[in-house]
């Protein structure tokens, strides 16, 4: 499945400090619709949860305009989702309880993506921008819609403990999180109640 390629000449995003305020923040008590038709309240989830926020995935056979490619960090949502799909077992071994993708696209759109890409995790819709506004997340304005800039969050028992921003290249996003998890295990740093350390 060749969903993991994207142009090599796309502009690299820079850290503009727009996510510096997130470290240590507690998740707001919001419930977001998921692709399995449930409502997910992130603040109530136990253990370690990884959420990768992405702007938008393209529709099947959609032609990606140059104007989209020219936005630093915009291109690469499908390769990012596939990176988490392909390494999902390693996340479970590393003690991650849940993985979610999150965008401002609606649930029906996300359900098609989940099925087409065979994603083993749910996608969350922030179509009403409740999550964006509560966390003051940076956005991209695109064709009259607000899209979330690419951010990955590690959340332990409802509290943000690690932020990846900007995320680049997007197809390496999942590996970057796994590398951090391995480093945390090496340093024997444990988040209370969040992790079942793998025993070999």
TrEMBL record:
Residues 21-186 form the Thioredoxin domain. It comes from the Eukaryota. Pfam families: Redoxin. GO terms for molecular function: thioredoxin peroxidase activity. InterPro entries: Peroxiredoxin_BCP/PrxQ, Redoxin, Thioredoxin-like_sf, Thioredoxin_domain. One of its GO terms (biological process) is cellular response to oxidative stress. Keywords: Antioxidant, Disulfide bond, Oxidoreductase, Peroxidase, Redox-active center. GO terms for cellular component: cytoplasm. Belongs to the peroxiredoxin family. Prx5 subfamily. PANTHER family: BCPB PROTEIN, THIOREDOXIN-DEPENDENT PEROXIDE REDUCTASE. This is Thioredoxin-like protein. It comes from Aureobasidium pullulans EXF-150. The lineage of its organism: Eukaryota, Fungi, Dikarya, Ascomycota, Pezizomycotina.
């Amino acid at each position: 499945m060749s969903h993991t390629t994207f142009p090599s000449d796309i502009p690299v995003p820079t850290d503009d400090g727009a996510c510096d305020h997130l470290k240590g923040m507690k998740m707001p008590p919001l419930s977001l619709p998921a692709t399995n038709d449930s409502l997910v309240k992130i603040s109530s989830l136990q253990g370690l949860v990884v959420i990768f926020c992405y702007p938008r995935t393209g529709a099947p056979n959609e032609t990606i305009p140059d104007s989209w490619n020219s936005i630093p960090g915009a291109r690469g949502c499908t390769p990012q989702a596939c990176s988490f799909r392909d390494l999902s077992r390693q996340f479970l071994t590393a003690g991650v309880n849940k993985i979610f993708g999150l965008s401002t696209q609606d649930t029906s759109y996300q359900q098609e993506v989940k099925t087409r890409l065979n994603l083993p995790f749910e996608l969350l819709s922030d179509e009403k921008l409740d999550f964006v506004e509560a966390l003051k997340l940076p956005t991209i304005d695109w064709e009259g819609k607000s899209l979330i800039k690419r951010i990955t969050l590690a959340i332990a028992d409802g509290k943000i403990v690690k932020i990846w921003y900007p995320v680049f290249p997007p197809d390496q996003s999942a590996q970057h999180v796994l590398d951090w998890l391995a480093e945390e295990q090496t340093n024997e740093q444990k988040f209370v109640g969040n992790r079942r350390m793998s025993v070999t």
